[in-house]
Amino acid sequence: MYYLFSAPWFRPRAGLLAALSIACALAASPSLAQDTARKGSIMVEGHGEASAAPDEARLSFTVVKSGETAKSAVAAASETMQAVLSAMRDLGAEDRDLQTAYFQISPQYNYEDQSQPRREPQIVGYEARNSIMVTVREIASIGDYLDRAVEAGVNQGGDIAFSLADPTELLNEARRKAVADGRAKATLYAEAAGVELGSIRKITERMGENPSPMAKGGVMRAMAEASPSVPVEIGEVTVSADIRLVYGIGGS
Question: What are the record keywords, sorted (predicted)?
């Protein structure tokens, strides 16, 4: 039996008609309802970390020299730096292990005599800074590098950055842990929501940060007071991996 509504107060909206049509279609076709449910998804993020002892290190050394002129300051810094580079090579450092990291020439001012108003500070000399990075591939010899650097004339710096020459294996371990972490979260969410966890639809690795492992430590705050045998603790380096997993719901 069909009824035709023509009363002016009955003006069904398009949205209501669409909703009624979908509801009727789903009721008439259970398979369509199941397909619609399977279109849902669970998105989780997984995190994993792995640690290992480092097998190489990068050391930073700086030579600071002063002179009455810029030329004399640079000459003094260059002479000392040549001695430092020679000492590093004597210990086994190759050309690929030595890299200039920083060079600067700065005027030195006298701020004490300000008796006259608006008098600008006078330049009384110049300072030259020359910094190098040294890659130490025999990590047990780090103390020797520090000792020789001080002996050669290094008077500032001494930062140490430990790392792995090849972090691939460690990074892959962190990735496996990240996937396991994401899978555990997705399983928990599916159980809590009372739905069946489907297959993985998408895996994305978050590469916002450099995945190479690195652990830094400062040594030689006062280079001139360093002892002939500098103690160094290498500890461990840690690498992390972060991924995003998208699972289907309902066997999808």
Answer: Signal
Asked whether the beta carbons of 128 and 68 are under 8 A apart, the reply is no
Task: For the chain, give every domain's residue range.
Answer: 54-165+214-239
Asked if residue 27 lies in contact with residue 211, where contact means CB atoms within 8 angstroms, the answer is no
**What is the DSSP track for the chain?**
-------TT----HHHHHHHHHHHHHHH-HHHHHHHHHT-EEEEEEEEEEEE---EEEEEEEEEEEESSHHHHHHHHHHHHHHHHHHHHHTT--GGGEEEEEEEEEEEEE-S---STTPPPEEEEEEEEEEEEEEESSGGGHHHHHHHHHHHT--EEEEEEEE-S--HHHHHHHHHHHHHHHHHHHHHHHHHHT--EEEEEEEEEE-SS--S--EEEE--SSGGG--SS-------EEEEEEEEEEEEES--
pTM: 0.66
CATH code of the domain occupying 54-165+214-239: 3.30.70.2970
Reported as a single tens digit per residue, the pLDDT across 107-128 is 999 877 656 666 677 889 999 9
- pLDDT single digits (tens) 76-110: 999 999 999 999 999 999 999 999 999 999 999 98
